[in-house]
Amino acid sequence: MINELLNPWVRDLVPYSTARDEFSGEASVYLDANESWYGDGVNRYPDPFCRALRRKIEEKLSIPFDMSAIGNGSDEVIDLLIRMFSAPGDSILISRPTYGTYSVFARANGVNVINVPLLPTLDLDVDGILRTIAEKRPKIVFVCSPNNPTGKVYPIEEIRTIADNNPFITAVDEAYSDFADGFVSAMTLIESNPRIAVLKTFSKAYGKAGARLGLLVSHPDIQKAFMKLKAPYNVSLLSQREGLEALSDEDFDARVNDIVRRRNEFSKYLGTLPYVIKVYPSEANFILIRVPDAVALYDYLLSLGIVVRNRSSEPLLENTLRITIGSEDEMRTLKEALDAYKG
Ligand SMILES: Cc1ncc(COP(=O)(O)O)c(C=O)c1O
Q1: Which ligand 1 atom sits nearest the alpha carbon of residue 147?
Q2: Distance 294 CA to ligand 1 centre (A)
Q3: Residue of 301, 343, 11, 319 whose CA lies nearest to 310
Q4: What is 252-340's CATH superfamily?
Q5: pLDDT over threshold 90, residue 17
Q6: Where, residue-wise, is CATH 3.40.640.10 in the chain?
Q7: What is the mean pLDDT of the chain?
Q8: Using one digit for the tens of pLDDT, what is the confidence trace for 130-141?
Q9: Average pLDDT in the 85-113 region?
């Protein structure tokens, strides 16, 4: 069933066979990959299949080995999903405001972007999405939950309704899910609906943005296509090590809980500022606010060396700024600046 949805050239693709694909086991003399003999381990190519990391993911996150793949950031996973399932002239569906790279990668691949905007409440327009799926048959529906930049989690039942009524692929981006209280992952839906692909990342809660580690969780048939299409050594040896380290970090829960606690406190604080019109409730590691003049506040903060993100060009988000929850020190500096702002 997944194979029928794949682009035929992806289905038929014979992947590049690396030196390390053709050999498994332990050897004492490696002369098969034109590497340097000299070095501390990084002289060798990395495992193309990230097996140690995926075994650890199975152990720690209970994601079966044959249902996981690692991308060079989840951005690479987004790009590869688009290249697997859509061709130039096809479409994907997104609900703006949302994360920007779905559109950029679609356009870079000659794929059109259909926007079914969020409702004014910033919820998904489920009926509008279902109507558009039936009429325009987009090859991938992207749902980002918790959504960037609104911080909103969409009910899992809505995601199930969309995916079950979508004969093509539904990709659910859960980059921020670790920060969401009582979060139910769309991974729980894959067993009954193999057309669902879930994206996770090591860039947010795991604190490894610089290592570029994204995770695709899906039916093994999607995994097989991903392995064919990706660059042979898409995740560096150093990054694979960073991923293993992140999954062994015993302070992970405490750090995430700390960010969530400080997010909630900061959200309350923002609500006390006279010039803040709205604080959007957030289940992520950032908070979106509306102010009378977002450019003025942005420029003011920048003049003090504090950079936040202006999201005002997004539909429904006029005069909004998105603020990441940083360290205690960073937030203290930001608070001092916000306290002194005259609006
Ligand atoms: C919703 C969402 N998905 C994916 C990404 C990209 O993550 P990665 O660093 O794994 O490429 C981001 C980055 O900000 C994001 O906000």
Answers
A1: 1
A2: 24
A3: 319
A4: Aspartate Aminotransferase, domain 1 (3.90.1150.10)
A5: no
A6: 2-247
A7: 97
A8: 999 999 999 999
A9: 98
- As a whole number of angstroms, the distance between CA 235 and CA 75 comes to 13
Atom index in ligand 1 nearest the CA of residue 203 equals 9
pLDDT at position 34: 93
The rounded distance, in Å, linking the Cα atoms of 338 and 343 is: 9
State residue 19's pLDDT score.
82
Which candidate, 115, 131, 123, 183, places its Cα nearest to that of 147?
Answer: 123
Q: State the closest ligand 1 atom to the C-alpha of 209, by its place in the atom list counted from 1.
A: 9
- Spatial distance between the Cα atoms of 145 and 149, rounded to a whole number of angstroms: 10
pLDDT tens-digit profile of 161-173?
999 999 999 999 9
Residue 144 CB less than 6 A away from ligand 1: yes
pLDDT of residue 27: 85
Q: Is 75 in the pocket of ligand 1 (CB under 6 A)?
A: yes
All CATH 3.90.1150.10 domain ranges of the chain, comma separated, are 252-340
Contact between 176 and 203 under an 8 Å Cβ cutoff? The reply is no
| Contact by Cβ (8 Å): 186, 175 | no
For residues 260-280, give the mean pLDDT.
Answer: 98
What is the per-residue pLDDT across 303-337, written as a single tens digit (0 to 9) for each? 999 999 999 999 999 999 999 999 999 999 999 99
Ligand 1 centroid to Cα of residue 167, in Å, is: 26
- Regarding the beta carbon of 97 and ligand 1, being less than 6 Å apart is answered no
> Which atom of ligand 1 lies at the shortest distance from residue 76's CA?
11
Determine the CATH number of domain 2-247: 3.40.640.10
Centre of ligand 1 to C-alpha 72, Å, is: 11
Return the best residue to mutate from 142, 144, 150, 201 for the ligand 1 pocket (most ligand atoms within 8 A of CB): 201
Q: What is the mean pLDDT of residues 258-276?
A: 98
**Encoding tokens for residue 227?**
């392995």
